[in-house]
Each structure stands twice: as structure tokens, then as C-alpha cells.
Design brief:
Helix content: 25-40%
Bound molecules: phosphoric acid mono(formamide)ester, norvaline
CATH architecture of the largest domain: 3-Layer(aba) Sandwich
Number of strands: 9
Number of domains: 2
Structural class: alpha/beta
CATH topology of the largest domain: Rossmann fold
Amino acid sequence: MTPTLTPHTLPQPVLAGRDFLSNLDMSAAELRAVLSTASSMKRGEWKQVKPLAGLSLALVFEKSSLRTRTTFDVGMYQLGGHAITLTNAEIGLGTRERVSDVARNLERWVDGIMGRVYLQQTLHELAQHASVPVINGLSDMLHPVQLLADYQTIEQELGSAQGKRVVYIGDGNNLANSHMHMGMLTGSRVTIVTPVGYEPNGAVLLDAVRSGADITLTNDLSAVEGADVLYTDVWISMGMEAEADIRRRAFAGYQVTPQMLDTIAPDGIFLHCLPAHYGEETVPEATEHPKSRVFEQAENRLHAQKALLYHLMGAMQPRW
Ligand code: CP
Ligand code: NVA
């Protein structure tokens, strides 16, 4: 029988009051605590508790979203709290109103802010001016909440991520950067395969290499062979639409196909953060391939983010 937690048996929140702008905002031990909570939530052990009762989270969107919006909203509801979605058409972050003033208003009403933004700097500005936790729900630089769900999926499917070969193929974008951070935190062996000129962020790479993480950058497609995890993301991220044609040409050949999946490890898995641009970075037959875990991964967005919200906000008392 699934053990059910009570208010007296909840784990200690390990990130109380912190911001989460990057995966490196938690230590390896804190990541373990968050992923363990995520698995316990997925097993249904948190059904009887409402640890965020009376707390509210603002969801600020400069860009579109299906998964991030739905999972934060449903996640707050399931934990007993409440979410309010604010689109940029409504609040005009930095245009209708200064980012710092948005932060100084929101902190008076809500207990946390999730931001999906163009610039990582906008998140730092929100965090600097808001006394409540700020969570990165994707920026041009990083997508750390996605990687929590990704590593929950990897560990669920393959056991410990340590030493596993995680091969990311495609654009050296926000996902690629966050993958390097997870290599630093978990000891996975991360390979980033991109066309020439589309390599990931140099500062993130330098930090990762200096930390001793096992990171390989290459333009060579044969690096995919034998991967434990093959991961891809869109070639044209939100905000890059003007470069679509030039990018489609540059990335030709870097598409994940069922034939490519046949070359990864026999028990290897295929992950994609979604949305997929079929015909570009992948094809529907790859999503449907027996090695694909992309919808399991999407489900884990809910569990991983609920765990994050609990560890960030679980020690707060309602202010009203
Ligand atoms: N993977 C992801 O963040 O999906 P959305 O853009 O739909 O939120
Ligand atoms: N790299 C993509 C991820 C979408 C979830 C983007 O930034 O649009």
C-alpha cells in the first residue's frame, strides 16, 4: 500500500525562501531531496496534505506555453495553493511598467513568482526587487525547471544519472546550457552535438569544465552512438523566428529519426522537452518509437515542479 504523508511526516523544505533561476541555485544534495520528493509525489504519497494552503504564485509569461503554464497552475492547486497567470499583453513587463515595480507590487500580494521571459537578466531584476522566491520558467539562457523533470525521467527509467551518457543534439540554446549544469550536479557525462556556429554559451561551458564536469562539445553526429539518453529541442526557439530559414539550412542532418534512435544504447531513451517542430529537429515516428519517453517526461513536469514549489515555499505561512 502507498504510504500517505501527514502534516507531521512531511520532509523539511530544503530551499526555503530561495530563488530558482538556474539549476546551480541548488546543491547536488538539495537536488536529491527535490527529486526524491518528486518521486514520492508521483507515487501518490502527498494526496492527503495541502502544504501550500493559503499561498499564491504569480505566473508571468512574456512567451507562449502549454506545459509550464499548466503544470505550475495544477501543481499549486494540488498542493492546496493558488496560481494566477499574467500574460505580457496584460502587464507589459518593462514596457507598461518597470520590471522592478512589477516585482515590488507582486511581492505584496503573492508568495512566489514564476517568470517565463526573453532575458535571464529580467529574472535577476525580478529576484532583486521581490522578497518572495522567483522561479525561472525559461529564459533565453536557461530552462532549469525542465531539467528537473528530465532528470526525474532519466533516473526513473535508467537509475542513477551518474556516469550516464546524455547526448543533446541540436541548437546550443537554453536547454543545452541547462544540460551542462545538470552534468555538474549529477555526474552525468554530457555531450552537446551542434552544427558549427550553434554551440552553447561559452561562460556556462567554462564553468562546467572548470568544475570538473564531464562535458564534450562536438559537431560530429557519430557522438550520438551508444547514448544512454538522446535529447533534442527545437532549432528555432521562441523569439528566433526571423532566423528560421537560415537555421533550417544550418541544422539539416541533425534531425532525430528512428534510424538515429537505433544507434543509441539498446536500453537508451529519447527525450524532447516539447513542443516538437516535426520535420525539423525530429519526426513523429521518433516520438512514437519504443525508446521515446517524451510524454512520461512531460508528465514529470508536474511532479518535479510540485516538489520544487514545496521545497521553496513549504515553510511559508499565509500572510492574511
Ligand atoms: N517544455 C516546455 O517548457 O513547454 P512549454 O513551452 O509548453 O511550457
Ligand atoms: N528552446 C525552446 C524551448 C521551448 C520549451 C525555446 O526557448 O523556445
